[in-house]
Amino acid sequence: MNRRVVVTGIGVAAPGGIGAEKFWKLISTGTTATRPLSLFNAAGYRSRVAAEIDFDPDLHGLTPLQIRRMDRAGQLALVCLREALADSGIEIADELALRTGVSVGSAVGASTSLDREYSVVSDSGRDWLVGHHNAVPHLFEYMVPVRFAADLAREVSAQGPVSLVSTGCTSGLDAVGNAYELIREGSADVMLAGATDAPITPITVACFDAIGATTSNNADPQHASRPFDLNRDGFVLGEGACMLILEEREAARRRGAHVYGEISGFATRSNAFHMTGLKPDGREMAEAIVHALAQARVNADEIDYINAHGSGTKQNDRHETAAFKRSLLDHAYRTPISSIKSMIGHSLGAIGSIELSACLLAIENGVVPPTANLETPDPECDLDYVPRTARERRLRRVLSVGSGFGGFQSAVVLSEPGADA
Q1: pLDDT band at 421; cut points 50, 70, 90
Q2: Which of 6, 193, 195 is closest to 101 using CA atoms?
Q3: CA–CA distances in Å: residue 391 to residues 27, 136, 300, 341, 394
Q4: Alpha-helical segments (H) within 186-282
Q5: What is the CA angle 139-145-146, rounded to 5?
Q6: Burial class (CB in 10 A: 0-12, 13-18, 19+), 222
Q7: Contact criterion met (CB below 8 Å) for 9 and 176
Q8: Among this protein's residues, is 346 annotated catalytic?
């Protein structure tokens, strides 16, 4: 079975605002949402810049019980799911509930709540031996990130395949890719797919400080995320979530659903090389791109836009540039490429799904989002990285890629509604 899969609903929570409309306005105008870290006292940390969400769960309809039990990342995912369902207009009930699944990506799970609760049970780290007596009764739920997926399934009584994908920074792409494959093979008719992470916590910031992956440009937070710029010095840690409604294409057509685009190809590879290191030739990412294009039956010269991983680390941006040249050959030089991490930071496992929503909205609006803060291009990153200003362009086929610690490389091909892929 080889069924076609379309996206009919989008829900986004990203720095700069909750909701797909606010998200699109921010990234299409090249506005940055990076700022001094404020979710905890970051004095003494190497990197004190973050891309935070101003989020009040009360204002977004969460109940007191949900606010008490759910980690911040779970709350963001729930808000996104509700927006995506309303956007799609789909009703999941009766027999359809049995054919509806959930696929959620997360790199660091309920790290916000685990960090907070460890501080409680250890008296802010004073006690080496800790007990459960002062912890919340649902502490165990924070340790098992699949709880995110289970909570979303319970929200709509989805009784199909439910899973949590955790492949580092490619989790958001891989979770949607997993959902795509389940519909494609006939294991589900509808999938609620996306990712969420709220990693701006003391322990997570310390982890990235330790390996020097994040920016130390604390004096200029708004311009600290500089993918493909000669003066870049690491990524800005962010938070966020995105949920998409995926449907089998013919069923979506029958119910008259609005279709943002079709997922026409997905592939993932590992470099089996190093936890954080990347080979300069970009071979593994290129392999993922080539296989995603082959599955989509799309030639390299048919790609109209590439949403880059574009983290803003020296080696990643050069690795990606090499991968695009290796997979798209001469067409890589003619293709607009951009990184929205320049505006909303890097929300780890969530970013891949957020970037897919950016691609779908770019197709819908005929606009390529820019790479903000790209002032002095790195000569080794010599492709068209759309500096600072968006461009109007019809986008028939779009490629989105991700690169994750552990050596993971993933690629997704999206097509304009009605395109023969």
Answers
A1: very low
A2: 193
A3: 12, 50, 21, 17, 10
A4: 202-211, 249-254
A5: 115
A6: middle
A7: no
A8: yes
DSSP H helical segments within 366-417, as ranges? none
Domains of the chain: 5-110+145-415 (3.40.47.10)
Catalytic residue among 80, 223, 309, 359: 309
Give the model confidence (pLDDT) of 239-253 as tens digits.
Answer: 999 999 999 999 999
pTM: 0.97
Any idea which residue has 């997905």 for tokens?
Answer: 266
What distances in angstroms separate CA 252 from CA 6, 7, 263, 363, 402, one per listed residue?
8, 9, 14, 18, 28
DSSP 407: T
Dump the DSSP string for 77-129: HHHHHHHHHHHHT----HHHHHTEEEEEE-SS-SHHHHHHHHHHHTTTTT-SS
Distances (CA, A) of 202 to 41, 45, 76, 231, 278: 9, 9, 20, 27, 27
C-alpha 280: how far from chain center: 24
> Which is the catalytic residue, given 242, 346, 359, 381?
346
Average pLDDT, the chain: 95
Active site residue 133: no
Nearest residue to 69 (alpha-carbon basis) of 167, 150, 158 = 150
Q: Which of 80, 169, 242, 381 is catalytic?
A: 169
91-137 pLDDT, tens digit each? 999 999 999 999 999 999 999 999 999 999 988 888 888 888 888 99
Catalytic site includes residue 331: no
- Token look-up 């986004």 returns 12
